[in-house]
Amino acid sequence: MSLEDVGKLVGVTRETIRRLEERDTWLDTDRADQIGKALSVPLEVLGFSYATDAYSSAAKALPVVGSITSDDKVQFEQTGRRVAGGAHLPAGSVALDINQGKMRGWLLVYREEAMEPISQYVLLRQGQTENFISHLADGTTLWRHIKPAAKQGFYHLNSRYLEPLDDVQMLDLGVLSELG
Questions:
Q1: Which of 56, 96, 110, 124 has its CA 20 to 30 A from that of 72?
Q2: Partners of 155 in the beta sheet?
Q3: How many domains, the chain?
Q4: Whole-angstrom Cα distance, residue 135 to residue 127?
Q5: Full-model pTM
């Protein structure tokens, strides 16, 4: 069956099916269910499984726990949406939907229980990219690059596309790590 044929059965374009097949687009459970029904096969045949003991190459079902807005703010919400993540992702991984900007349509994947206190080691480990989600003392959560400020206990939060935020306080356990 051609990509175009599958797309017609599912109600999407050939290009959408190609992007799903090549993992350029995240496969969510609704779309996997549509494709499975169109092909008369279970989700597991598509490489998507909820089972904790699924074969090692099966895509893991990741809950989408919120989104990232145009100003890099994280908005947590109960979406009920699940997407197929890579088989390599550790247990407990969750996803945030990136809604705007150059990475629109991508997901930021992390482990909720991977909270770490801010330390020199953590700061060195992030390199030059936005590798952490920061919980600020004012209750805001941002996806930014973290640099220590001159004043003890304060940080500068940088982004490639937005103005920096200088001299912000972060919570003691303010960094979620292991982004994918």
A1: 124
A2: 148, 168
A3: 3
A4: 19
A5: 0.60
Rounded Cα distance, 105 and 97, in Å? 7
What is the helix (H) or strand (E) element at residue 104, kind and residue range? none
Residues 6+ apart with CB under 8 A from 161: 101, 102
Structural domain range at position 139: 120-175
Residues 6+ apart with CB under 8 A from 121: none
In the predicted model, what is the mean pLDDT of residues 32-57? Answer: 70
Please name the residue that has the structure tokens 């990219």.
129
Please report, as a single letter, which amino acid is at residue 19: R
Q: Side-chain half-sphere of 27: how many Cα atoms within 13 Å?
A: 25
Task: Report yes or no: 176 and 133 within 8 Å, Cβ to Cβ.
Answer: yes
Give the single-character DSSP code of 90. P
Given a cut of 60, whether residue 177 has pLDDT beyond it is no
Is residue 167's pLDDT more than 90?
Answer: yes
Residues 86 and 95 sit within 8 Å (Cβ to Cβ): no
Are 53 and 63 part of one and the same domain? no
Contact 69/75 with Cβ under 8 angstroms? yes
